Every structure is written in C-alpha cells, then in structure tokens.
Amino acid sequence: MTSAHSPLIFITGASSGIGQALAARYARAGYRLALVARRTAEIRAWADAQGLDERRCGVFGADVADVDSIVAAGQACMAQMGLPDVVVANAGISIGMDTGVREDIDVLARTLAVNNTGLAATFHPFVDAMRQRGSGRLVAVASVAAIRGLPGHGAYCASKAAVVAYAESLRGELRGSGVKVVTLVPGYIDTPLTRRNRYAMPFLMKVDDFADRAHAAIEAGAAWRVIPWQMGWVARLLRIMPIALFDRLLAGRPRKHRQSEA
Predict the structure, then answer these.
(1) Per the residue annotation, which of 26, 31, 156, 166 is the catalytic one?
(2) Is 31 assigned a catalytic role?
C-alpha cells in the first residue's frame, strides 16, 4: 500500500522502454511515481491500466532537451508530490550519424541536448534540496556504448561517455552529503529503441529483468553497475583492447539507422 508518506521516484523518459519498466518495478516496491515524458497521454493510459491513480502516480509533461521545460517539471513535482527519494535521468535518444552529412550535425546537437544537458537539468531542481535533507539517489542512465566509439554511432557514444564522466564528477561533488549518484550502464535491452538495430546484440536482456537488477543497484546505492553482468566483462575487454585490433573487429559492422533512414 502507498500513501502520501511513501517514498517517491521521479523518472524521465517514462512512456516506454526502460523508464516504463522501472516505473512498474518501483510501483511494486510501494513507491509513488512522478513520471515525465513528452507523451503524457500515453503515461496516464499506462498508469490507469496498472491501477495507479493520481495519488500514486503524477504525470508531468516536459521536453528534456529544453532546460526550462524539464526544470519546471521537477519543480512541479516537488510542489505537488514532495522531494523525491530517487531521481532517474533515463530519457535519451539514439540516432546514427555521418559527420559528412550536414543534417547529421544537427542530430549530434540534439543528442547532446537530450542525453547530456537534459540529464543535468533533470537533476538540477533536486540537488540542493536532497543535500539539505541529507539523502537521495540521483541515477544517470548511460550505456556500454560509452566505453569505445563505434562507427556510425558518434553522437550516441559521445553522449553516453559524457554521461559517465558527468556522473562521476557529480558523485565527487556530493560525497559526504548523503546523496548517492548511481551510474547504470545497460548493455542491449529489449526495448523499442533497440528492436530496429541491424546488428547482433549479444546478451540481449528482457526489459523487466533489467528493471529488477537496476532496482537492486539503485537501492544499494551502487556507484556503477553494468547490466547484464556479462556486458561488464565485454566492457573490460573493450577498455584494454589495442586500437588496431578494435578497428579490425569493427570493420564492416552494420551502422545504426541515421535520421533520414528512420
């Protein structure tokens, strides 16, 4: 049973995929939900189907790429539901790019705006209040794609590498405050975002299984967690792989769909 005193989680990108699966997992754990996306009607329909009324699930519309929009959503959450115990900056986009194509430079700018500036703006309304309270968890959703740059994935890989570095910086800034910064590093998770990929996805994981493991990592306050664990070994190997071998391994690999191919 949940009440006004139940813990609260704030999740961006909650209309599908990882965000929606995390919302369902935390609802089962007795949390109240503050869910954010541009498609608010879809979130409300999902919440109604789960039997989550407005006392248990608040819905906030925002474009994470617009700093004022996502900051306003965070402020509205605190005004209506209180200060969250957990904030998950999950919203992200993944589009292939070719630096030789002018329109793909705009793709890079949009990707960084959503995946990086939007992530920091998601945390912004809550940082000082959590620090004053002496508790909270700020969760940054990165990707194994952060480890090495993949051909055709320049925007996504760069943005997720920046997520890792940013979260590490923030963790150091908040050390000793009681506020934990958790970096989740998913491998391949079965979501609408990955189903269009035209290359092999080793250790593909069901999204609900990911949510279970992510919930455990967040509740434990883990600084860094690769999910599934097998991709953690892949990440270690990628880090130490010589450049020449890495380049040969990736030669000819199918690339992510570009915007014009969507």
Answers:
(1) 156
(2) no
